[in-house]
Amino acid sequence: MISLFVAFSCFKGVSIVAQPILEVSPKEVDLGTIYLGKAASLSFEIRNVGNETLKILKLTPSCGCTAAELPKDSLRPAESQQVSLSFDPTGFLGEVKKTVGIYANSREKYSQFSFYAKVSTDLDYIGGGMSAWAGRIKKGENKTIKIEMANRAGYPIKVKSIQSNSPELKFTLPKSANVLASESFVFEVKIQGTGEEFSQALLTIETDNPRQPLVPLRLTFIGE
Q: How far is residue 224's CA from residue 89's CA, in Å, rounded to a whole number?
């Protein structure tokens, strides 16, 4: 009886600390194969499994390619919410891993969510990667470069148009823009030098390919 009384007394003396506890579910997601030209959307859940209000202090994606949307920055005990993410794969090819750091007033101050993807493209820049280098261009000078793109899709692709976010770029498409499987096509880009030390433009190739209707290509040059 004495030992039971002592054990019961010790148990009654234990105080439960009020604290928020952040739980991330799932901790990682595999997006599989995604294609350049379209942002990938995904989400994960955060839940307060503690007994005090959880406050999300900040979310920190590992790069500017990932945008995170947090509906609200506090959760009551047992409350949860979805965090929405948008990943822009422009500039990436192959296996990619990205993370989102979560800072909170939780027992663990930092938690992390990860996602993986294999970034692919059906129209592939022959120069390597999806970024073309135009070299040095003097202010006021016009320079024309040729860009070759290969069809890796396994079926014909028709190129409809080429657009850019830079007014300094003009494009000339070949007479036939129907690219057969395993073949390539070449188009010309006319660049007007602006004198800026470093310039980077985004080219967008519009196609009839339902799997990848828009193909982004970065073009970089240095002004003199």
A: 31
Cβ atoms of residues 130 and 214 within 8 Å: no
Q: Can you say whether the dihedral through the CA atoms of 66, 67, 69, 73 is positive or negative?
A: positive
87-100 per-position pLDDT tens digit: 999 989 999 999 99
Q: Which residue has the tokens 């609200």?
A: 72
Per-residue pLDDT reduced to its tens digit, 118-127? 999 999 999 8
Closest CA to 169 of 197, 139, 202, 195: 202
Which residues, including other chains, have CB under 8 Å from residue 150's CB and lie 6 or more apart? 123, 124, 126, 182, 183, 184
**Between vectors from CA 74 to CA 69 and to CA 75, what angle results, nearest 5°?**
105
